Amino acid sequence: MTYALDHVDWALLHELQLDARLSFAELARRIHMSTPAVAERVRRLEQHGVITGYHAQVSLEATGWPVRALVRMACHGPTCLLRDPSVYEWPEVLEVNRVTGAECCVVKIAATSMAAFEDVIDRLAAYGTPSSMLVLSTPLERSPIVPPHPTPSSAG
């Protein structure tokens, strides 16, 4: 069941997506509410699973992981990568998305070098057929979630 968000919730989410380290007092100042009211709203958003965590955005390059890639995996059946959650713990695996189409998943990878990336591809091959795309740059790292606009069929 989806939690119904109002304009105040969206204002809080907007500010927190820009800077999750804002204090309740600063959030309150920015959206023109009292600090206790903001604290209660944020707690409610956390309890309903709207806010799922607070994270530091870390530079892969600055931390020694300059090689990034997206790897499409064509694997099915008992050897499918999705059946082995230990892969999710590999330090190179940043994200795993189950997808539609000929591939079962897309894996976001970071590696310390091309040789290390080649090693990851070799390890992934035990699960199926990997097909990789190296990331040259990321013009948009992440985009804030905004309120969905009603479609013409749902607008009254």
From TrEMBL:
It comes from freshwater metagenome. One of its GO terms (cellular component) is cytosol. This is Unannotated protein. The lineage of its organism: unclassified sequences, metagenomes, ecological metagenomes. Pfam families: AsnC_trans_reg, HTH_AsnC-type. One of its GO terms (molecular function) is sequence-specific DNA binding. PROSITE patterns: HTH_ASNC_2 (PS50956). Keywords: DNA-binding, Transcription, Transcription regulation. GO terms for biological process: response to amino acid. The keyword Transcription regulation applies. InterPro entries: AsnC-type_HTH_dom, Dimeric_a/b-barrel, Tscrpt_reg_AsnC-like, Tscrpt_reg_AsnC/Lrp_C, WH-like_DNA-bd_sf, WH_DNA-bd_sf. Residues 5-66 form the HTH asnC-type domain. The keyword Magnesium does not apply.
